[in-house]
Amino acid sequence: MINLNKKIFMNIAAGGFLGTDTRSVSEIIDCDMSELAELKITIEKIVGRMKEITNTAIPALGNWVQAGKKLTAKVEEAKGLLSCPWPHPARFAKRVTYVKNTESGQTIKWADLNIHLIEKHNFFEGKGSPFRIEPKELVEIIF
Ligand SMILES: [Zn+2]
Question: pTM (2 decimals)?
Fold first, then answer.
């Protein structure tokens, strides 16, 4: 269980990362982590694959590229930076990776900040947040 102080919680809530989720940040993290345990997959493996897909699509900025046997991906960038709500200096370009599984038709998207939140804080965001990532869906699509 991760113990979050009030200040971090306020940053997370103010940043819109909780969406309409009424659970605490710790509850959200615990729940997603047990889902990953059930899927028998690690954060390291997920983050590795996400970075691989984003890095494959970066050179083609704005255009769809093949990012694996059943995957196409594209990245789009907006001006400005996004900050991690945890108290450490971590800022990210507003880069969004869009991924489509051409076999199942499923799509998913993530911002660079999502990769950091998952890698360093095991945080997939609250339900109802525009950048909430469902771990099960993510795993289904990218592997
Ligand atoms: Zn952080």
Answer: 0.94
Q: How far is the CA of 107 from the centre of ligand 1 (A)?
A: 26
> What does the block give as tokens for 42?
């690690």
Assigned token pair, 138: 């993510």
Tens place of pLDDT per residue across the chain (143 aa): 456 778 888 889 999 999 999 999 999 999 999 999 999 999 999 999 999 999 999 999 899 999 999 999 999 999 999 999 998 889 999 999 999 999 999 999 999 999 999 999 999 999 999 999 999 999 999 99
Sheet with 71-83, side-by-side order of all strands: 65-66, 71-83, 91-101, 107-111
Distance 61 CA to ligand 1 centre (A): 25
Query: H or E segment at 80?
Result: strand 71-83
